[in-house]
Amino acid sequence: MTDVQSPFQLLVEIEQRCRQLAAGLPSQQEVVQTWSGIGFRMGERLFVAPMGEVGEVLHEPRYTQLPGVKSWVKGVANVRGRLLPVMDLCGFFGHELSPLRKQRRVLVVEHQDVFAGLTVDEVFGMQHFLVDSFSEQLPPLEAAIAPFIYGVFQREKPWLVFSPHALAKYPGFLDVAV
After folding, report:
1. What is the 3-state secondary structure (H, E, C) of 71-101?
2. Which candidate, 177, 171, 57, places its Cα nearest to that of 122?
3. Could you tell me if residue 29 is inside a domain?
4. Angle (CA) 10 16 21, round 5°
5. Helix (H) or strand (E) holding 134
6. What order of strands is seen across the sheet that includes strand 56-59?
7. Structural domain of 111
8. Does any domain span residue 62?
9. In the structure, what pLDDT confidence band is assigned to residue 27 with cuts at 50, 70 and 90?
10. CA–CA distance from 147 to each of 63, 79, 137, 164 (Å)?
């Protein structure tokens, strides 16, 4: 008669062997907490939007201009069969978009009843910041942009935390008619 191990005994033996072999592995010394967001630029300023507030990033799509709207409303684009209003975020805050069209991107925001594309000068993709580098002490800001900034992460340059969801709820952003 042969000595047959039960499946449970076999698993216990495998676990013991794994623990013996893993004993020499280095342990992580320190856990560093990070915060991630989508980095972008408007003019000379750097911004970061919380990950959950930007649905996607697009190259500037072809759009159809609309009559009777404010100058910062670029038009409406067909994105995969869905009409996306395209807004010039720089223009909304009274600044000019960069003339370098190749770098421009559109941040797509979908919040409550608002579905809109925000054109910015450049997008830097996902940015990771040490939580310790966050501050609520803001540098001097124009009054128009201040309601949408919730703090700043310090690096070589400050990265302002911009909330697209706060913008989507703002009555002035929703009022597009001339």
Report:
1. CCEEEEEEECCEEEEEEEHHHHCCCCCCCCH
2. 57
3. no
4. 125
5. strand 134-135
6. 56-59, 105-111, 114-120, 82-88, 73-79
7. 34-174
8. yes
9. low
10. 29, 29, 14, 11
Residue 81 belongs to some domain of the structure: yes
Among 26-30, 135-139, 142-146, which stretch is predicted with the lowest mean pLDDT?
26-30
Judge whether 18 lies within some domain: no
Provide the CATH number for the domain around residue 169. Answer: 2.40.50.180
pLDDT of residue 32: 81
pLDDT at 127 over 60: yes
Q: Which two tokens stand for residue 105?
A: 């991107």
Instruction: Name the domain count of the chain.
Output: 1
Q: Does position 4 have pLDDT exceeding 80, yes or no? A: no
Q: Are 121 and 103 in contact (CB under 8 A)?
A: yes
Residue that the structure tokens 């989508």 belong to? 38
Residue 38 confidence (pLDDT) above 70? yes
The tokens 């499946």 sit on which residue?
7
Query: Are the CB atoms for 93 and 106 separated by under 8 Å?
Result: no
